Amino acid sequence: MPTASELLIEEERQDLANNAALLSWTYTPMDAGNFVLGVTARDGTIFHLWCQHDRYGVMPPAWHWFNPETNARDQAGDIPKGGLFFHGNKVICAPWNRLAYSAIDSRGPHGDWELANWRENPKTGACLTLSAMALRIHCELNALSFQGRIP
Amino acid sequence: MVATETGSAADKGEEPGKDEIILDVATPKGPWSGAFPKTTKIQVVIDTIVNDLGLKQETFQLVYNGTPMEPTSRTLVSFGLEGRVKLTLVATGDGV
To answer: 3-state class of B23 per DSSP?
Structure first.
């Protein structure tokens, strides 16, 4: 029998799948702890994200940039630049991304954020669901500050 | 799909009335649809969705084709919206 936490995550994944259908994104479930999202940017190209959300709640998910052809993660040509969160370290720099924490990932710019308190971090704002995070990423990919891909 | 501001056109998948706009909005809690008078202010739309979905009382932006619909004192029709339109409700927040 699934736990309450697992049911909540499944509900959030379904909400995201429904948003993806509305916005003509691609949503590909991989397994219970991972999915791939394809989001269109302002230049008309598609950026893919691999979301790993094991232990979601206790800690935020890990949003990796992804290449569905090579299965590689976080490679230069697959990563956007510009926007508010697209850090030069090649990670989305926001408290709702596990990879932004230096305690988790050596590229993470923040040793000053507390992973366990990611929901209470003022910079998290209302990015408290998988859909909210994906919509925020989509917004940045379509903002005037978007500057294409890291070469 | 939820109840609408002005009636049931959005719920039934019908065409909007002459003076209304149907919004299909991707939100932090999945898609939400509603019909509003064309002259509805953006902030009223945001407040309606946030309250309807029980979202955290934080700042949200409505975004249309990549452009935040601001200032929120403007009306739907002033952004050139008509008929049935897809929007996103985006949580603001800082990073970097």
So the answer is: strand
B29 within 8 A of B53, measured Cβ to Cβ = yes
Does residue A13 have a pLDDT over 90? yes
A97-121 per-position pLDDT tens digit: 999 999 999 999 999 999 999 999 9
Residues A123, B56: C-beta atoms closer than 8 Å: no
Q: Is A7 helix (H, G, I), strand (E, B) or coil?
A: helix
From chain A, pick out residues whose CB is under 8 angstroms from the CB of B60.
126
Give the H or E element holding residue A13. helix A4-23
For residue range B7-49, list pLDDT tens digits in order. Answer: 445 655 667 778 999 999 999 999 999 999 999 999 999 999 9
CB contact under 8 A, A15 and B29: yes
DSSP per residue, B50-95:
HHHHT--SS-EEEEETTEE--STTSBTGGGT--SEEEEEEEE----
Q: Quick one: pLDDT at residue A21?
A: 98
Nearest-CB residue to B91 (from A84, A109, A136):
A136
What is the Cα–Cα distance from B87 to B64, expressed in whole angstroms? 5
Residue B93 has its nearest CB partner, among A14, A124, A142, at: A124
Phi, psi (degrees; rounded to nearest 5) at B47: -60, -40
The overall average pLDDT reported for chain A is 94
Inter-chain contact A129–B58, Cβ cutoff 8 Å? no
Instruction: Strands of A32-123 (E only): list them.
Output: 34-40, 46-52, 62-66, 80-82
